[in-house]
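Check my protein:
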Amino acid sequence: MDNKKRSFTKALIAAPILAAMPWASAMAQQSAAWPKGNIKLIVPFGAGGSVDRFSRGLAAQWEKSLGGASIVVENRGGAGGLLGARTFVGAPKDGSVLFAGIQPTLSMNIVAQGADFKLDDFVFVNIEQRDYSSITVPAGSKYKTIEDLVNDARANPGKLKISMVPGSGTYLFGLAFIKALKLDVNVVTFNGGGTQRTDLLGGHSDAMVASAYGDMVLGDKVRVLAVSSLEPFPGWPNAVPITKAYPNIKIPPIGDNRFIAVSKEFAEKNPEAFAAIVASYANNFKSPEYQAYMEKQGSTIISGYRGPEESTKMVRELHEVVVEFKDALQGK
Protein backbone atom coordinates (compact mmCIF):
# COMPACT_ATOMS: atom_id res chain seq x y z
CA MET A 1 0.00 0.00 0.00
CA ASP A 2 1.50 3.38 -1.01
CA ASN A 3 1.73 6.33 1.39
CA LYS A 4 -1.35 8.12 -0.02
CA LYS A 5 -3.60 5.09 0.36
CA ARG A 6 -2.19 4.35 3.80
CA SER A 7 -2.87 7.91 4.96
CA PHE A 8 -6.36 7.85 3.45
CA THR A 9 -7.13 4.57 5.19
CA LYS A 10 -6.00 6.10 8.46
CA ALA A 11 -8.33 9.02 7.79
CA LEU A 12 -11.29 6.66 7.33
CA ILE A 13 -10.41 5.06 10.66
CA ALA A 14 -9.88 8.40 12.40
CA ALA A 15 -13.12 9.98 11.17
CA PRO A 16 -15.55 7.86 13.24
CA ILE A 17 -13.27 8.18 16.26
CA LEU A 18 -13.39 11.96 16.02
CA ALA A 19 -17.13 11.84 15.40
CA ALA A 20 -17.62 9.89 18.63
CA MET A 21 -15.57 12.30 20.74
CA PRO A 22 -17.18 14.93 22.98
CA TRP A 23 -18.19 18.05 21.04
CA ALA A 24 -15.56 20.47 22.33
CA SER A 25 -12.66 18.02 21.95
CA ALA A 26 -13.67 16.98 18.45
CA MET A 27 -14.10 20.59 17.34
CA ALA A 28 -10.70 21.54 18.67
CA GLN A 29 -9.01 18.76 16.72
CA GLN A 30 -10.90 19.41 13.48
CA SER A 31 -10.59 23.20 13.42
CA ALA A 32 -6.89 23.20 12.62
CA ALA A 33 -7.35 20.93 9.60
CA TRP A 34 -10.64 22.18 8.15
CA PRO A 35 -12.14 24.55 7.15
CA LYS A 36 -9.56 27.07 5.97
CA GLY A 37 -12.20 29.53 4.79
CA ASN A 38 -15.70 29.67 3.33
CA ILE A 39 -17.12 26.52 1.73
CA LYS A 40 -18.98 26.12 -1.56
CA LEU A 41 -21.57 23.34 -1.70
CA ILE A 42 -22.42 22.44 -5.30
CA VAL A 43 -25.94 21.16 -5.99
CA PRO A 44 -26.33 19.61 -9.47
CA PHE A 45 -30.02 20.53 -9.78
CA GLY A 46 -32.06 23.72 -9.83
CA ALA A 47 -33.45 25.57 -6.82
CA GLY A 48 -36.60 24.30 -5.13
CA GLY A 49 -36.09 20.56 -5.55
CA SER A 50 -35.55 17.99 -2.82
CA VAL A 51 -31.74 17.94 -2.93
CA ASP A 52 -31.68 21.75 -2.96
CA ARG A 53 -33.84 21.96 0.17
CA PHE A 54 -31.73 19.28 1.86
CA SER A 55 -28.52 21.13 1.00
CA ARG A 56 -29.70 24.54 2.15
CA GLY A 57 -31.03 23.20 5.43
CA LEU A 58 -27.81 21.29 6.10
CA ALA A 59 -25.62 24.26 5.17
CA ALA A 60 -27.51 26.68 7.41
CA GLN A 61 -27.12 24.39 10.43
CA TRP A 62 -23.62 23.05 9.74
CA GLU A 63 -21.95 26.44 9.26
CA LYS A 64 -22.90 27.44 12.80
CA SER A 65 -20.16 25.12 14.08
CA LEU A 66 -17.44 26.19 11.61
CA GLY A 67 -15.93 29.07 13.53
CA GLY A 68 -17.26 31.84 11.32
CA ALA A 69 -16.88 30.09 7.95
CA SER A 70 -19.94 30.11 5.70
CA ILE A 71 -21.31 27.34 3.47
CA VAL A 72 -22.64 28.82 0.23
CA VAL A 73 -24.98 26.65 -1.85
CA GLU A 74 -24.43 26.94 -5.61
CA ASN A 75 -27.00 25.41 -7.97
CA ARG A 76 -25.53 24.02 -11.18
CA GLY A 77 -28.47 22.24 -12.79
CA GLY A 78 -28.56 20.75 -16.27
CA ALA A 79 -28.18 17.47 -18.16
CA GLY A 80 -29.72 15.45 -15.35
CA GLY A 81 -27.10 16.44 -12.79
CA LEU A 82 -24.15 15.92 -15.13
CA LEU A 83 -23.18 19.59 -15.43
CA GLY A 84 -23.10 20.09 -11.66
CA ALA A 85 -21.04 16.95 -11.10
CA ARG A 86 -18.62 18.02 -13.82
CA THR A 87 -18.35 21.46 -12.20
CA PHE A 88 -17.45 19.82 -8.90
CA VAL A 89 -14.86 17.51 -10.48
CA GLY A 90 -13.20 20.55 -12.05
CA ALA A 91 -13.28 22.63 -8.84
CA PRO A 92 -10.28 23.24 -6.54
CA LYS A 93 -9.21 20.13 -4.62
CA ASP A 94 -8.49 21.95 -1.37
CA GLY A 95 -11.56 21.14 0.71
CA SER A 96 -13.26 24.42 -0.09
CA VAL A 97 -15.79 22.77 -2.43
CA LEU A 98 -18.17 19.98 -1.41
CA PHE A 99 -20.75 18.13 -3.48
CA ALA A 100 -24.39 17.48 -2.53
CA GLY A 101 -25.42 14.75 -4.89
CA ILE A 102 -27.90 11.97 -5.45
CA GLN A 103 -27.25 8.31 -6.03
CA PRO A 104 -28.10 6.70 -8.43
CA THR A 105 -27.94 10.02 -10.30
CA LEU A 106 -24.16 10.02 -10.18
CA SER A 107 -23.96 6.52 -11.63
CA MET A 108 -26.50 7.42 -14.30
CA ASN A 109 -24.27 10.31 -15.37
CA ILE A 110 -21.39 7.87 -15.70
CA VAL A 111 -23.07 4.75 -17.11
CA ALA A 112 -25.83 6.19 -19.30
CA GLN A 113 -24.48 9.61 -20.24
CA GLY A 114 -20.80 8.82 -20.70
CA ALA A 115 -19.50 11.37 -18.21
CA ASP A 116 -15.81 12.24 -18.34
CA PHE A 117 -15.37 11.32 -14.67
CA LYS A 118 -15.57 8.13 -12.62
CA LEU A 119 -17.36 7.04 -9.47
CA ASP A 120 -13.94 6.76 -7.85
CA ASP A 121 -13.42 10.51 -8.29
CA PHE A 122 -15.81 10.99 -5.34
CA VAL A 123 -15.32 10.11 -1.69
CA PHE A 124 -18.55 9.92 0.26
CA VAL A 125 -18.93 11.56 3.65
CA ASN A 126 -22.47 10.34 4.26
CA ILE A 127 -25.72 9.35 2.60
CA GLU A 128 -28.00 11.38 4.83
CA GLN A 129 -31.38 11.01 3.19
CA ARG A 130 -32.71 7.77 1.75
CA ASP A 131 -35.88 8.69 -0.09
CA TYR A 132 -38.14 6.54 -2.24
CA SER A 133 -39.94 7.28 -5.49
CA SER A 134 -43.59 8.23 -5.71
CA ILE A 135 -46.24 8.34 -8.43
CA THR A 136 -48.25 11.46 -7.68
CA VAL A 137 -51.29 13.27 -9.09
CA PRO A 138 -53.05 16.54 -8.18
CA ALA A 139 -55.56 16.23 -5.35
CA GLY A 140 -58.42 16.89 -7.79
CA SER A 141 -57.31 14.24 -10.27
CA LYS A 142 -59.76 11.62 -11.48
CA TYR A 143 -57.18 9.00 -10.58
CA LYS A 144 -57.88 7.69 -7.08
CA THR A 145 -55.61 4.64 -7.26
CA ILE A 146 -52.55 3.54 -9.19
CA GLU A 147 -54.77 1.05 -11.00
CA ASP A 148 -56.93 3.95 -12.23
CA LEU A 149 -53.89 5.63 -13.74
CA VAL A 150 -52.49 2.48 -15.33
CA ASN A 151 -55.86 1.42 -16.77
CA ASP A 152 -56.41 4.85 -18.32
CA ALA A 153 -52.91 4.84 -19.79
CA ARG A 154 -53.62 1.47 -21.39
CA ALA A 155 -57.01 2.59 -22.69
CA ASN A 156 -55.54 5.78 -24.17
CA PRO A 157 -52.03 4.99 -25.44
CA GLY A 158 -49.84 8.01 -26.06
CA LYS A 159 -52.25 10.41 -24.34
CA LEU A 160 -51.15 10.68 -20.70
CA LYS A 161 -48.34 13.03 -19.68
CA ILE A 162 -46.07 11.87 -16.87
CA SER A 163 -43.27 14.16 -15.71
CA MET A 164 -39.84 13.12 -14.44
CA VAL A 165 -36.45 14.61 -13.59
CA PRO A 166 -33.74 12.92 -15.69
CA GLY A 167 -30.70 11.77 -13.79
CA SER A 168 -32.54 11.08 -10.56
CA GLY A 169 -33.36 7.79 -8.88
CA THR A 170 -37.00 8.63 -9.42
CA TYR A 171 -36.32 8.80 -13.16
CA LEU A 172 -34.81 5.32 -13.06
CA PHE A 173 -37.87 4.09 -11.16
CA GLY A 174 -40.19 5.82 -13.64
CA LEU A 175 -38.55 4.12 -16.60
CA ALA A 176 -38.72 0.76 -14.84
CA PHE A 177 -42.41 1.36 -14.01
CA ILE A 178 -43.34 2.23 -17.61
CA LYS A 179 -41.35 -0.68 -19.01
CA ALA A 180 -42.63 -3.26 -16.52
CA LEU A 181 -46.28 -2.34 -17.14
CA LYS A 182 -45.74 -1.81 -20.88
CA LEU A 183 -47.28 1.66 -20.88
CA ASP A 184 -47.33 4.09 -23.80
CA VAL A 185 -47.19 7.56 -22.23
CA ASN A 186 -45.61 10.93 -22.97
CA VAL A 187 -42.69 11.59 -20.63
CA VAL A 188 -42.15 15.28 -19.84
CA THR A 189 -38.80 16.17 -18.26
CA PHE A 190 -37.63 18.93 -15.92
CA ASN A 191 -34.23 19.93 -14.50
CA GLY A 192 -35.47 19.93 -10.90
CA GLY A 193 -38.30 18.92 -8.62
CA GLY A 194 -39.41 22.50 -8.00
CA THR A 195 -40.44 23.20 -11.59
CA GLN A 196 -41.79 19.68 -11.92
CA ARG A 197 -44.17 20.15 -8.98
CA THR A 198 -45.24 23.57 -10.27
CA ASP A 199 -46.09 21.94 -13.59
CA LEU A 200 -48.21 19.26 -11.90
CA LEU A 201 -50.12 21.73 -9.74
CA GLY A 202 -50.73 23.84 -12.84
CA GLY A 203 -52.50 20.89 -14.44
CA HIS A 204 -50.02 20.52 -17.28
CA SER A 205 -49.11 16.89 -16.54
CA ASP A 206 -51.41 14.06 -15.53
CA ALA A 207 -48.96 12.61 -13.03
CA MET A 208 -45.37 12.89 -11.91
CA VAL A 209 -42.76 10.43 -10.73
CA ALA A 210 -41.00 12.22 -7.90
CA SER A 211 -39.71 11.66 -4.37
CA ALA A 212 -42.10 10.48 -1.69
CA TYR A 213 -40.54 12.70 0.95
CA GLY A 214 -40.22 15.67 -1.40
CA ASP A 215 -43.92 15.47 -2.20
CA MET A 216 -44.76 15.98 1.47
CA VAL A 217 -44.23 19.74 1.12
CA LEU A 218 -47.29 19.78 -1.15
CA GLY A 219 -49.54 18.39 1.57
CA ASP A 220 -53.18 18.03 0.57
CA LYS A 221 -52.56 19.59 -2.85
CA VAL A 222 -51.59 16.17 -4.19
CA ARG A 223 -52.42 12.48 -3.89
CA VAL A 224 -49.63 9.90 -3.91
CA LEU A 225 -50.91 6.79 -5.64
CA ALA A 226 -47.90 4.50 -5.22
CA VAL A 227 -44.37 4.37 -3.82
CA SER A 228 -41.28 2.37 -4.75
CA SER A 229 -40.58 1.12 -1.23
CA LEU A 230 -41.35 -2.48 -0.35
CA GLU A 231 -43.48 -1.36 2.60
CA PRO A 232 -45.80 1.68 2.99
CA PHE A 233 -43.90 4.98 3.25
CA PRO A 234 -44.62 6.69 6.63
CA GLY A 235 -45.26 10.07 5.03
CA TRP A 236 -47.95 8.66 2.72
CA PRO A 237 -49.53 5.69 4.54
CA ASN A 238 -52.34 5.35 1.98
CA ALA A 239 -49.97 5.05 -0.99
CA VAL A 240 -49.55 1.43 -2.03
CA PRO A 241 -46.06 -0.03 -2.67
CA ILE A 242 -45.93 -0.62 -6.42
CA THR A 243 -44.87 -4.26 -6.09
CA LYS A 244 -47.90 -4.94 -3.88
CA ALA A 245 -50.24 -3.33 -6.40
CA TYR A 246 -48.60 -5.37 -9.19
CA PRO A 247 -46.92 -8.37 -7.53
CA ASN A 248 -46.03 -10.02 -10.85
CA ILE A 249 -43.68 -7.26 -12.00
CA LYS A 250 -40.08 -6.77 -10.96
CA ILE A 251 -39.17 -3.20 -9.99
CA PRO A 252 -36.35 -2.56 -7.50
CA PRO A 253 -37.16 -0.22 -4.55
CA ILE A 254 -35.32 2.67 -6.18
CA GLY A 255 -35.29 6.24 -4.91
CA ASP A 256 -33.02 9.21 -4.33
CA ASN A 257 -30.18 8.84 -1.87
CA ARG A 258 -28.86 12.30 -1.02
CA PHE A 259 -25.24 12.49 0.01
CA ILE A 260 -22.32 14.78 0.75
CA ALA A 261 -18.99 14.04 -0.95
CA VAL A 262 -15.49 15.42 -1.40
CA SER A 263 -13.04 14.82 -4.22
CA LYS A 264 -10.86 11.71 -4.04
CA GLU A 265 -7.75 13.77 -4.78
CA PHE A 266 -8.41 16.04 -1.82
CA ALA A 267 -9.22 13.16 0.54
CA GLU A 268 -6.08 11.23 -0.39
CA LYS A 269 -3.73 14.20 -0.23
CA ASN A 270 -5.30 15.63 2.93
CA PRO A 271 -6.40 12.68 5.09
CA GLU A 272 -6.46 14.71 8.30
CA ALA A 273 -8.66 17.36 6.71
CA PHE A 274 -10.98 14.68 5.31
CA ALA A 275 -11.27 13.11 8.74
CA ALA A 276 -12.06 16.56 10.13
CA ILE A 277 -14.84 17.05 7.57
CA VAL A 278 -16.39 13.72 8.48
CA ALA A 279 -16.14 14.47 12.19
CA SER A 280 -17.58 17.96 11.75
CA TYR A 281 -20.44 16.66 9.63
CA ALA A 282 -21.20 13.83 12.08
CA ASN A 283 -21.17 16.15 15.08
CA ASN A 284 -23.55 18.52 13.32
CA PHE A 285 -25.87 15.67 12.36
CA LYS A 286 -25.96 14.32 15.90
CA SER A 287 -26.31 17.72 17.56
CA PRO A 288 -29.59 18.50 19.36
CA GLU A 289 -30.02 21.57 17.15
CA TYR A 290 -29.86 19.63 13.88
CA GLN A 291 -32.01 16.82 15.23
CA ALA A 292 -34.61 19.42 16.22
CA TYR A 293 -34.35 21.00 12.75
CA MET A 294 -34.96 17.63 11.05
CA GLU A 295 -37.86 16.91 13.36
CA LYS A 296 -39.43 20.25 12.43
CA GLN A 297 -38.91 19.56 8.73
CA GLY A 298 -40.28 16.05 9.04
CA SER A 299 -37.14 14.60 7.47
CA THR A 300 -36.22 12.27 10.32
CA ILE A 301 -38.16 9.50 8.56
CA ILE A 302 -35.57 9.41 5.76
CA SER A 303 -32.42 10.68 7.52
CA GLY A 304 -29.52 8.88 9.16
CA TYR A 305 -25.79 8.97 9.83
CA ARG A 306 -24.14 6.05 8.05
CA GLY A 307 -20.58 7.28 7.63
CA PRO A 308 -18.15 6.90 4.72
CA GLU A 309 -17.84 3.11 4.72
CA GLU A 310 -21.53 2.19 4.73
CA SER A 311 -22.39 5.08 2.39
CA THR A 312 -19.78 3.92 -0.12
CA LYS A 313 -21.19 0.39 -0.01
CA MET A 314 -24.70 1.71 -0.72
CA VAL A 315 -23.40 3.87 -3.58
CA ARG A 316 -21.73 0.89 -5.23
CA GLU A 317 -24.78 -1.34 -4.84
CA LEU A 318 -26.94 1.27 -6.58
CA HIS A 319 -24.31 1.60 -9.28
CA GLU A 320 -24.90 -2.04 -10.16
CA VAL A 321 -28.65 -1.39 -10.50
CA VAL A 322 -27.91 1.43 -12.94
CA VAL A 323 -25.67 -0.87 -14.97
CA GLU A 324 -28.56 -3.37 -15.10
CA PHE A 325 -30.92 -0.71 -16.54
CA LYS A 326 -28.35 0.93 -18.83
CA ASP A 327 -30.25 0.20 -22.04
CA ALA A 328 -33.52 1.60 -20.68
CA LEU A 329 -31.77 4.74 -19.50
CA GLN A 330 -30.31 5.21 -22.96
CA GLY A 331 -33.71 4.71 -24.58
CA LYS A 332 -32.88 1.38 -26.17
User: Anything to note?
Assistant: The first strand starts at residue 39 and ends at 43.
